[in-house]
Amino acid sequence: MFSAVKSVFLLILLPLLYIPLGFVYRYYRRSLKFLRGPPRPSLLFGNELELTVQEELGILETKWFNKYGLAFRASSCFGEDMLIVADPQALRYITMTSAYRFPKSTDSAQITTLQFGRGVLSVEGEVHVRHRKVLNPAFAATQLRQFLSLFQRTAAKLADRLQQEELGKDGKVINVTHWLPLATLDIIGESAFDYNFGAIDRQTNELSQIFKNMFAGARLYPQKRSLLYRVFRRSVDTPLANLLLKFPGRQERQMMEFSVASKRIAKSVFDAASKEAKLEGNTKYSKDVLSVLVRSNMAEDPKKALSEDEVLSQIATLILAGHETTASTMSWLLYEITRHPQDQARIYQEMQDVRERIGQDAELTAADYDSMSFLNAVIKEALRLHPIVPSIAREAGSDDIIPLEYPVVSESGETLSHIPVSKGQRISLDIAMYNRLTQVWGDDANTWRPDRFMQDTKKNITVGVYSNLMTFGAGVRACIGWRFALMELQAILFCLLERFEFCPPPPEGSFRGLEDIQRVPAGLMIPMKRGNWREGLQMPLLMKLRRR
Ligand code: HEM
């Protein structure tokens, strides 16, 4: 009965009321009419449906960037225009120069709030400044180095566990996307919150499971009505959007499920820690994440204080943002070195040189990892070609003018070096495209070539926080955990390569091998087998034990 009422509400009443009026209003209010862009295949869905259902992420966007330049107009649902940009100067202006003038788009803010509550990922302006002020010290390089041996221990535990998989002399095909998040969850749990998820031991991970359903299930290839529901929700005022959430769709239900599970874990972590802090009279002044959060909850200075709800949201945010991102990036990295065995051998040689220098059983220091220029070049190249967050949705907080480094040609044939936008204009910052621009990375931008990072890459373009890449975002909202992620990638890669060799999986049934691994458009860039996306995240690699 309830579901029938909901379907009637969603399918008949809302579109009847909203579509004609909204369409006319939006069509005439469009501020990007002067820009070129792909034709609108459907009045109702614009280009949004074809973007969401394309087989592999980036195919359409690449075609359009090649045709219209590094900033173009695409159509959203209900007649709205969307600006898609990969121009370096535009990205710099929106994320770095303008600080908070281009907030997150309404729907991405709604979605992150639904998943994590009011944590650093969802809040804006002054509140965001306060959250970052509390959290930043916990992510400083000196602070993170203290966790290096924990990263190494966990990587070794993962390797031990994989070794028990009876690899035999010919090796065994292992879906690495199953294993890597177990290690990164254990790492974030212990280093940030002194909390033992025991994910590698138990081989289960409730949060990872919900995460997989959330992206691989609900966000991948959504049904048309889910897309309309989402678009409708983002275009109405917050009170009405909140009311609509009383009738959640599949995607929203899974996000709420994640939110409940992560907040439950966050609460138990936080209660234990604050009890301990009170017992110790709050004398602990360490800068790990949990300590800074507990202290912020007790702080009297409003500029440094977080409410309990904000603290729990922070913990939930860091648990997800801090483990699946690195694990998926690591899967893509292993995919690339499997496809390029000569590079795998070269890293291994570099690792052996380090071992010869420091001893077979010595623990590596941060400086040892940093000294391996090829290993680091491989990490950068994987981050460049496979940015797990492929695009960021923003909107103009006020009327503005966005400068371009590479001018585009308008509908009337005029050359434009600036794009005027009206308040509320939706903008998609295309990280995946920027990371492959020939203008920035050279003619072989689409090709795997880690050596590009062995040369000096500090040209006059500087975007983002690391190596001229947009993979970790940029500006005031850049990824807080980018150094943490790099250290994890170094430690896990070193440890796994020291024990195992990664080879292409043999064909099986309709699966032809690595050529059938795709980057599917599920909000994040996650790997799946072509035509088999119901199996969820998949990166099957043939793992062989190295003889030492
Ligand atoms: C390879 C791994 C990672 C990638 C590619 C990545 C990517 C990103 C990107 C692109 C953003 C910006 C989103 C936006 O502007 O809307 C971001 C934000 C964020 N990331 Fe990461 N991330 C990674 C690892 C981590 C880790 C390990 C942590 C925590 C330990 C973390 C915590 C966060 C948080 C809290 C934010 C929100 C920052 C803010 O809004 O102030 N990330 N990440």
UniProtKB/TrEMBL annotation:
> What parts of the sequence cross the membrane?
6-28
Superkingdom of the source species? Eukaryota
The record's subcellular locations are: Membrane
Which cofactor is recorded for it?
heme
Q: What is its main location?
A: membrane
Keyword Metal-binding in the entry? The reply is yes
| GO CC terms of this entry | membrane
Residues at which heme binds: 479
Pathway(s) this gene product operates in, as recorded in its UniProt entry: Secondary metabolite biosynthesis; terpenoid biosynthesis
Cite the entry's keywords alphabetically.
Heme, Iron, Membrane, Metal-binding, Monooxygenase, Oxidoreductase, Transmembrane, Transmembrane helix
Q: Name one Pfam family in it.
A: p450
> What PANTHER family does the record tag this protein with?
CYTOCHROME P450, CYTOCHROME P450 12A4, MITOCHONDRIAL-RELATED
Family statement drawn from the similarity comment of this UniProt entry: Belongs to the cytochrome P450 family.
Name recorded for this polypeptide: Cytochrome P450
Organism, scientific name? Lentinula raphanica
